[in-house]
Amino acid sequence: MPSTQDPETFPFDGSSYRGPDPRYARWRTEEPVTRVRTAGGVDAWLVTRYEDVRAAQADPRLSRALACGPAAPRIGGTMYTTPEMIISMDSPEHSRLRKLVAGAFTQRRVERLRPRVQSVLDGLLDDIEAKGSPADLVPQLTLPFPLTVIGELLGVPPEDLRQFERWARAFATVDDRAGGEASLEGLAKLSEYIVGLIARKRSSPSDDMLSELITARDQGDRLSEPELVTFGFTLIGAGFDTTANQLANSVLALIGRHRDQWETLVARPARIPTAVDELLRHVNLFATDTSGFPRIAAEDLEIGGVRIAAGDAVLLSLASANRDGTVFEDPDRLDVGRAHNPHLSFGHGIHHCLGKHLGRMEMEIALTGLVSRLPELRLAVAEAELPWHVGEINHTLTSLPVAWGA
């Protein structure tokens, strides 16, 4: 049963990229669905146990659309998606849009990109090795790698990539302390740019994802102009910023606190695909420990035996679910050889990540390149000196100085 004490304030100070606040372990056992007081002063239900989080992700009674409407309870901060974004929709609108875009994200389609993604990574590592040790992996690898890939997927000309990066970074780095102004400005600039890019692709289509989405059809249906624009910057936020942060945080985990696991990958690079899933499970990307997006109960329901009333806000803690000891053996240990790993980092249900195949491939290619070409990679500063930006969505490393060799 939920506690009768005053709810604790969410998000919790004890969480970091290393993992969720220690209180989650107690809640998973004693109170897996608990009431919390959010930064906006609104109470919400926080779901912490794996089986409950997984079931809730697929429950159509928990609405993303209601969480984005004008009457939605404000849980605090500025990270509120618009109703036009696919991550904000419920069925049937979500199913219609997903059906139109899904073909661009199949595993077969993504595998066709592997040679070019490998080429991008090789070029960046060539530059790093040419400049020599030390290096800063954030501006030299973890940011430009996924950005270049997303830019090429959308068909952004190479000469536009630098400006594109500035706008994309501003859009993705949501920060309540700045009132969200930089993010909104980045969004406006990106939207304007994508409108022009769509116009050019209509007149001169090429072999890129945006051209494919422009021509996508399903029984006569097609994406509207606003849907194309919205999907473009949704792809930027999810495919660039999330991948950049996951890669940087994962490299830090491996060459820092879990050096033995880095050495395992150097000796056995064939384990890297398994390691990617383990890093997705173990490394806590989201600053709030949740998926970043609340849901609203569309009707009365129960989660984990707790009654949730229609209109209540619900937060699903992916970080806590991914450390559930009833599902993962020794859950707080990073184990790149972990065989059983049904983590929820890509979601479950209708909102499971469309770009998961691309994200996995980028992580695999990047880690394979690093362990094979820079096996002696190490931190160039003490971990405590690393600069972080903790916004409303991600734990973001702004610099990752590394060294190798003598």
Structure summarized in a few sentences:
This is Cytochrome P450. This protein is an alpha+beta fold and 406 residues long.
CATH topology: Cytochrome p450
Q: What would the average pLDDT be, to the nearest integer?
A: 87
| Radius of gyration, taken over Cα atoms and rounded to an integer in Å | 21 Å
Q: Which segments are poorly predicted (pLDDT under 50) over 5 or more consecutive residues?
A: none
Count every beta strand, where a strand is a DSSP E run of 2 or more residues: 13
Gap between N and C termini: 58 Å
Family: Belongs to the cytochrome P450 family.
Keywords: Heme, Iron, Metal-binding, Monooxygenase, Oxidoreductase
Pfam families: p450
InterPro entries: Cyt_P450, Cyt_P450_B, Cyt_P450_CS, Cyt_P450_sf
